[in-house]
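Fold this sequence, please.
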Amino acid sequence: EVQLVESGGGLVQPGGSLTLSCAASGFTFSNYAMRWVRQAPGKGLEWVAIIHALGVSTYASDPVKGRFTISRDNAKNILYLQMNGLKLEDTAMYYCEQVDGVRGQGTQVTVSS
């Protein structure tokens, strides 16, 4: 069974940092491109960042470019999202997912003063 379990969310002040993790199991992690997506209250899903299966390339959406970094450890089957310079508008539920595949349950990030 494919499982993706996110962790690392929480409450942080504007300008702060968080690192999200996503533990993957039940599939060959290194065969899949992965991404982070988020959903703010009352809004639709928005892609945040994507990484190649072998980690050789990454892309971030314009709202987070220069502040968020996606990475992966294929030996440990873990996907990461390093978030710096957090803004109020980054408040959302964050999900990791296989590109065009399974999505995890999410971890809540709340940016508030």
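The CA atoms of residues 46 and 103 lie 13 Å apart. Strands lie at 3-7, 10-12, 18-25, 34-39, 45-51, 58-60, 68-73, 78-83, 92-98, 107-111.
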